[in-house]
Amino acid sequence: MEESLIEEIKVLNRENDMFGTYDKAIAICNFLNLEDSKQLLEKNNLIAIYGPWGIGKSCLMKTIQSNLPENKFETVWFDTWKYEKDDNLPYSLLKFMTKDKKISKLKENGKNMLEIGYSILKSMAKGIDVNLGIINIKPGEAIDEVQKLDEERVKNIKDNKCLWEKIDEFEKEYSKMTFNNKKLVVFLDDLDRCESENIINLISSIKLLLSVNKNIIFIIGIDKKAVTLALQNKYNNDFNKADEYLEKIFPINFSISNNINVENFEDSIVKIMNISHEDSKKIVDFFDSIAFSNSRHIKKVLRKYISIKEYLIRKNIDLSNIYNIILVLYFIIIHIFHNDEYKYLLLENKETVYNKILLINYDRNTGRKLENQFEQYNKKECNVNYNNGKKYEVFKILVRFSSYKLKIKELKAAKYLEGGASIEYYNWLGLFDDSICKNFIEFIMSDTNFLDILFENRTYNDERVYNMINEINNII
């Protein structure tokens, strides 16, 4: 399989960057490396990389890690999801980032600072559990037992330090840690996969305790939506407080969104799908038209296409034609990511889904509102004209590819042409919210070559399309 489709965290460069991430990574590296950024980073050493799951935050951070100059930075990569089961995850991070020779820095004064750190972080994360136990003694021993407990309390008061004393002692030593006159950059990956409690506990512990050492910079990949939801539970579903909490902790943040690096992406598509550069541009236009840009999702769809391609060819589906390829890709996308729509696409007579639509018209002479059942709709009046003289009756194709979710249940009926497409066409699209289905219909209608694949002698062949859907469903 083409290497670019393998699901792995990798270092990006200008040649293998398919989704416009490399330049952002280099820009962040430059920011960290600037002398002018030094004072800002000492006061704000927590940096968030915001982006939804699967968009490429890990690759962005791995690319930053790879491009930081070794003479100025040491780096640590901590997979939070992998170590989440540790009952003291903040302490696990502390020990991980100070491992090897660095850990001795916390012991130089002869005190077991790691032990103190463990108890502090445990307390901060979970609260201090006090176990009074059950006293099971004979009546004659009661006075002796009480005296013994009293002596232990006195001893504890003398020997045990309260939490603020422990924190103060820890911070004094922890803040002195240096890393060969370099900055230590700690990358935290997959935080958004963790349980809500662990997300909040880890972020809070880093902010309140671990960030006191200004020789350390934390870079954390965060699905802002997932973390905000976790924080909303803490703040009684107050979205504003949750958002403010994140802004306060991460005043320095960068957002990542997939902007397809067209040239690299097209080159990869050519190799992956064995098609021409011209056809690869149509694939890019297709993804763009349906707003399908998540890098992990695109790779998943392309892997699925490769796995079923030979089967479909044996079933006489012509995959030398780019428009058939796009149809297959679309069916894969809605099967994986919009399964509710996919189930309705599998209906042989999908028109029955819309039988509850009320047909609205007005009598021109009286102005009286007329209401009829959907079955009386004049389907042949739903057409699209093109400048090249071609005209297509599109009602059946609208039914086949439309969403099953209606925004309104009233369809205004009219028979006048408007801007090359009948009012019925616009009215029909107006029944639905913007969705992948609506976007795909508009993509189809934008290219008469696509329509020619779906139509035979300007008549839409739903049986052929339905058979293709079923062949894909058999193997998908």
What does this structure look like?
- The chain is an alpha/beta fold and 476 residues long.
- It folds into 3 domains: 21-255, Rossmann fold; 262-337; 350-475, no CATH class.
- The protein has 20 helices and 14 strands.
- The strands form 5 sheets. The chain has a 5-stranded parallel beta sheet with strand order 2-3-4-1-5, sandwiched between helices.
- α5 (113-126) packs across α7 (163-174) and α5 packs across α8.
Overview features:
Rossmann fold, single chain, 20 helices, three-stranded mixed β-sheet, alpha/beta, five-stranded parallel β-sheet, elongated, 476 residues
Proportion in β-strands: 5-15%
Q: Biggest sheet, strands in spatial order?
A: 2-3-4-1-5
Tally of separate helices: 20
Q: Kindly report the oligomeric state of this protein.
A: single chain
Question: How many domains would you count in the coordinates?
Answer: 3
Question: Concise description?
Answer:
The protein has 476 residues and is an alpha/beta fold. It contains 20 helices and 14 strands.
Topology:
Layout: H1 22-33, H2 38-43, E1 46-50, H3 57-67, E2 73-79, H4 89-97, H5 113-126, H6 142-159, H7 163-174, E3 183-189, H8 196-208, E4 216-222, H9 224-234, H10 239-249, E5 252-255, H11 262-273, H12 277-289, H13 295-314, H14 322-337, H15 339-345, E6 358-362, E7 369-373, E8 383-385, E9 391-393, H16 395-401, E10 410-412, E11 417-418, E12 421-422, H17 423-429, H18 436-445, H19 448-454, E13 455-456, E14 459-460, H20 462-475
Parallel strand pairs: 1-4, 1-5, 2-3, 3-4, 6-10
Antiparallel strand pairs: 6-7, 8-9, 11-12, 13-14
Helix pairs in contact: 1-3, 4-5, 5-7, 5-8, 8-9, 9-10, 11-12, 13-14, 14-15
